[in-house]
Structures are given as structure tokens and as C-alpha cells.
Amino acid sequence: MNTENVEIHKVLDRKYSAGFITDIEMDSLPPGLDEDVVRFISKKKNEPEWMLEWRLSAYRHWLTMTPPEWAKLEIAEIDFQASSYYAAPKNAPKSLADVDPKLLEAYDKLGVPLHERARLAGVAVDAVFDSVSVGTTYKAELAKAGVIFCSMSEAIREHSELVKKYLGSVVPVGDNYFAALNCAVFSDGSFVYIPKGTRCPMELSTYFRINAGHTGQFERTLIICEEKAYVSYLEGCTAPQRDENQLHAAVVELVAMDDAEIKYSTVQNWYPGDENGVGGIYNFVTKRGECRGHRSKISWTQVETGSAITWKYPSCVLRGDDSTGEFYSVALTHHKQQADTGTKMIHIGARTKSKIISKGISAGRGQNTYRGLVKVEKSAESSRNYTQCDSLLIGKKCGAHTFPYIEVKNSTSTVEHEATTSKISDDQLFYCRSRGIGEEDAVSLIVDGFCKQVFKELPMEFAVEAKKLMEVSLEGAVG
Amino acid sequence: MLKIENLHVRVAGKEILKGLSLEVKAGEVHAIMGPNGAGKSTLGNVLSGREGYEVVEGSVIYQGKNLLELEPEERAAEGVFLAFQYPVEIPGVNNTYFLRSALNAQKKYRGEAEIDSMQFLKLVREKLSVLHLKDELLHRAVNEGFSGGEKKRNEIFQLALLEPKLAILDETDSGLDIDALKAVADGVNLMRSPERAFLVITHYQRLLDYIKPDIVHVLADGRIVESGGPELALELEAHGYSWVKDRVTP
């Protein structure tokens, strides 16, 4: 027993591998938020007047709002004046060739090479470092196919009409407290436009990195898929290990027109805090996709292993007839992490379908909540939903909670909900060990089996990464 | 190969094994019979290292090593295998993947080269055909949704694949119909070799019609009270366990 404890402590002491800080000259605002900060950000980005007005209206609206309190999360009051709302590396690069070598090195360490020689094969990457995008790979190749993939700042300048038309059309300015804050102060993010009839020739991905201390990250992503177009998009996130709580409040909007399909995958590994709950990212994210066209499809897949607090409900508004929404989620909470996550499926069009597969894993003193809404409007005749929520508990001090909300306003639709809660049993562990598989490997194996339905939805490279991430996140979970 | 001396084991504070001694040599098949609650399953569990079994006295020497000091996975790699009375389901984990992980973990412990998936698949097909098992077994999750008979056959399949030196069968016959019983026994008989020993724990004599033991032991009240040849099993069948109890109770 004693030797086991030593082993467990060894792994516990191991550091979050993405926890390093890059020492680079920064251009940043002092902490605090007022209208001048909003004006500063807009000016810094050379935004058109309409954009500034949009931000200011969001800011004024935000001032009238209060943070949501319905989630099953214990959060100390957040001082929004203590955070800095803008931080960017000095000497902003004009192209990838100009990117500071220290930045390239930082992304190399994270396994996301940006420089010409070692680019990720078949994946175009937009790298967002604190408040700005530092480079986007494969731009020329994508342009040939008519695909626009660039930073949001660039899109506001270069593709102003598209941005104006779609920004805030899925998540309105006053949608919720954190979305309103994001509208006011978002600094960068990714913009994707896939023209009619185009299948995006490669996976697109954005890699978000928080580096500066006392800084929040507020990114904004907008993806538009025209008729019969297809894109698969991935996002990854990491942050240094610090004993302060940093704020991350993103907004992602997806629009799919007739027969279009968007597949959006997330592997979220923000710094989770230490085993006593000190530090870690507060992750308040609004993600929503609208199936605006008939027969369109939006699929969210998320693997959430990081953050001290996760508050996130990637949703689908199924407006087009015969459209489909999917949500596949694995959320893991270890130590003192808390997650309140799930989805909303809003059926408006006729014969719309949605599917929800949620897998929650709790270890240590982690608290994991699934919260999901399935709403079938009167107009959504003959629609279907299938929901499956499974929770897995490791140890005795963690918790799992499920809050499904179902509203059906017609009599021709079908809604199914299944939920299970299980524990990794001593019997399962002993069975694996009696066959020669060590304890930690046995836990990984059992958890991997539990997550299989979700992992198989991820693009291959990410599925491998997700599996590894689960192993690292669960180290020291048994004993 | 295995020498158990004066073994006393407590489970939840209650003494279950009360001075059990047993010696098993390579190539031998020993049957352990006894009434319910005699400590048969406790013996299997304590040999494979399950938690919650407290050894208060006695020793277990396996191939010159103190078996009780080893973790369950180390015992497995040293060649101890327990076929479970109630095999455990592991949802979502592919049977083939599970077995390859187990085999490679054992090989790694022994300092042998790991086996790649192509070699492994070849090995698996070979064992399947020898045991007359269906391919379908490979594509399913470990024991998930298996019938009682399928679970027991899967245990024998694992036994065939992992090739242990000491195989302990814990009431592998319980809940099996006659066809499944024969299939399981055939598998075990195929695995018999001069290098391998078996400890067959059973409540009923009928399994021993198919797996011929060299030595039969009667376990009652935490001790071996009688040992003999295969004829002992028949006597037990005829007279019942009370016959043994009467003989040992002073």
C-alpha cells in the first residue's frame, strides 16, 4: 500500500505539460474595463466605425446584466476590473515569415508547428496568442479553393460585408452575460467562409494560447458554410500554470445553409488549477450553430479536460427543414475542477433530428454536471431527439449530476432520454490487473472504453491526442 | 511449482482459510472440491492477489518466489491465471484490444519483445480455431452482453492466449449447460502440458468427468481435510459433503 502511495504522489507532482510561460515583449493594457478600453481595442485593430458602435452597444448592455447563477458551480465573485482586456506580442507579424522565433518555439513545444518546414500535414492552423492571431498556415492553398480562413481582425477589415451580415446573427449581442462581455472586448479569433458547393480541402484548426498573466482571453469565431459546402474545424486550447484564475469568455457562431455541413471539434486543455483548486482558467463559452438551410447539419464534438470552471453549452438551432444537430461530449473533472456543460437542441424546422451523447467523468473531488435542453417547437413536426447521458465516477469524493430539460410543443415528435451513472468498480480493476495490466493503465483502458462513442467522432489525430490527454488528466486518480 | 503452507486468511475480519496446505507440481491437475462457504473461492482470490483478503499466517511460494509480495499484475506476468467465477464486463473496450494490452503488459514485465497487431491477430485466429470459437468474440467489448456460457468460454480463450504456468479455474462449470461444459473442458484439456499446472475449483463432480484430475482435495471449514485420487470425487458425489464433515469433526 505504501509503495502505491509513493507512486501516486509522483504522478500528482508531475506538472501540467503546457504550463510554461513564453518570455516575450508584450503590448498590453493595464487591468480594468470601461468604454475607453473598448475604444482602444477597436482602434488598435483599425476597425470600421460600425464595429466600434456594435462593441459599445454590447458594453452598455453588459453593464445592465448580472452573471448567471443557475449553474451548479461554486465560483467566488469575479472582479472584472482585475483583468487586462488586451495583451499582444509587440512587433505584430505581417506574415508567418515575420513571426518572432520565440513564438514559433512556444507553438512547437505545444506540438503545433507553424513554420514552413514542419507544418501539420493536411491541417491549416490559425494560432491565437493572447489577444491576437500570430499566423495562419496554408492560406494560399485554401484561397485557391475559394475558402477564406483568417483571423477575425483581418476578416473585419478585409471581408467587412460578410462579417457585418453574420456576426451576432446566431448569438445576439445581449444573449447572456459572458457573450455580451465578449462582444464588447473580443480581440481576435478565426473566421471561416466556405463558398457554395465547396468541400474544404483540408481540416481547419485554431490553436488558442493564453500566455500573459492577469489577462483574459475573449476570442470570437465565425464559420459560414454556404449551400452544399462542408468543413471540419478543430480547436485546441492551453495556458500557463499560474496560481491566479484567468478568465476566458469566447463566442463561436456557426451558420450552415442548404445541404451544408459543419463539423466542429474541440480539445480543451486550459490549465485546470492544482489539486487544491488554486489557479486555473474560468472558461465561460457560448457556442451556437444555426442550421439555417434545409437538410443542413451541424455536429459538435468536445473533449473537455482542462479549466478550473467550465460553463459551456454548444447548441444547435435547427431552423431548416430536415436539418440535423449532433453533440458528442466527454467532460472530465479531477481534483477540484467543476464543469457544468451540455447542449441545447432547438427544433424549429419540420422533420429535424438531434442526437446528444454526453460522457461525464469525475475523479478526485471533481464535480461534473450535464445540463441540456431539448426544445421542439410546434412547427417542428415529426422531429426526433435521442439523448444519452452517462456518468462515470472514480473514487468516493467526486460528484455527477444530470439536468435534462425537455419541452415538446407538438404531438408528432419523439424525444428519448437515457441516463446511467456507474463507477469504475474494484471488480473491473482487479479483472484487468489479474490479466497483467497495471492499475493506471487499467483505469485508462476502462475510461477509454467509456468514451469510445465520442472519441470515434473526432478526426483521427485528435482522437489520439484526446486519448493521451485523458491518461495524463487521470494520473493519480486511483488509490 | 506452488507450495502453500499453513495459510490463514481473513475476509472482513472473519477467518475463512484456517491453516490450508497444498503442494502442486508442474504438469499436475488438482481438483479442489468442497461445500459452499468452505473457502474455495477465497483460495483462488488470495492466490491471484485480490484486495480485501488478509493473510494472517502462513506462506505461499510459487516458483521460488513469495507470491504474496507480488501485485496482481506481477503475478499474472509470472504466469498465474485466474479464470473468474463471474467474469467482469468492461463496456466499450474491444476484446482483442484488451487481450493484446494484457499480453504485451506481461511481455514487457518479463523483458520480452512486444507483439504487434498483425502477429497478434494471427495468434488469436490460431487459438480461436483450436477452441472452436467464433470470430465474433473478437469484435465485441470485453464480456459485454455475453451469455453465461460465452463469458466462461472467453475466460478459457484468454487462458489459451496468455499461456500461464498455473491456471486456477474458479467454479468455471457453474451455470453451464452440458455442451458449454464440454467445450470448456476440451479447451482446458488442450492446454494440459508437462510445464503447466491446473487448480480446478468446483462444487460438483461432473466437471471432473471431462477434466481428469491427478489429485482431488476436499476443502472444508478452511482446511484440506482429505486428499486422494479421482475416486475421491466419486465417493463425495455418492455420499455428499456431510460424509466428509462427519469424518473430520472429532
Low-confidence stretches of chain B: none
Number of helices of chain B: 10
Largest interface: pair, residues per side = A-B, 23 and 32 residues
> β content of chain B, as a range?
25-35%
Structural class based on helices, strands and sheet pairing of chain B = alpha/beta
CATH architecture grouping of chain B: 3-Layer(aba) Sandwich
Percent range for helical residues of chain B?
25-40%
Total number of domains of chain B: 1
SS-based class of chain A: alpha/beta
Shape of chain B: globular
DSSP summary: helix tally of chain A:
11
Low-confidence stretches of chain A: 1-14
Distance between the termini of chain A: 9 Å
Order of helices and strands of chain B: EEEHEEHEEHHHEHEHEHEEHH
How helix-rich are the residues of chain A, as a percent range?
10-25%
Number of strands of chain B: 12
Query: Any idea what the radius of gyration of chain B is?
Result: 18 Å
Placed side by side, the strands forming the largest sheet of chain B appear as 6-9-10-3-11-12
CATH superfamily of chain B: P-loop containing nucleotide triphosphate hydrolases
What distinguishing features does this structure have?
heterodimer, A: 479 residues, alpha/beta, 11-stranded mixed beta sheet, disordered N terminus, B: 250 residues, Rossmann fold, 6-stranded mixed beta sheet, 4-stranded antiparallel beta sheet, 40% helix
What's the topology here?
The complex is a heterodimer of chains A (479) and B (250).
Chain A: H1 2-13, E1 26-28, H2 35-44, H3 49-63, E2 87-89, H4 101-109, E3 123-129, E4 132-136, H5 139-144, E5 148-151, H6 152-158, H7 160-166, H8 177-185, E6 190-194, E7 203-209, E8 220-225, E9 230-238, E10 245-248, E11 251-256, E12 261-268, E13 280-291, E14 297-304, E15 309-312, E16 315-318, E17 324-333, E18 338-347, E19 353-362, E20 367-376, E21 384-393, E22 399-408, E23 414-423, H9 426-433, H10 439-455, H11 460-474
Helix pairs in contact in A: 2-3, 3-8, 6-7, 9-10, 10-11
Chain B: E1 2-11, E2 14-24, E3 29-33, H1 40-48, E4 53-62, E5 65-66, H2 72-77, E6 80-83, E7 90-94, H3 95-109, H4 117-131, H5 136-139, E8 141-142, H6 148-162, E9 166-170, H7 178-191, E10 197-202, H8 207-210, E11 215-220, E12 223-228, H9 231-239, H10 241-248
Parallel strand pairs in B: 3-10, 3-11, 6-9, 9-10
Antiparallel strand pairs in B: 1-2, 1-4, 4-5, 7-8, 11-12
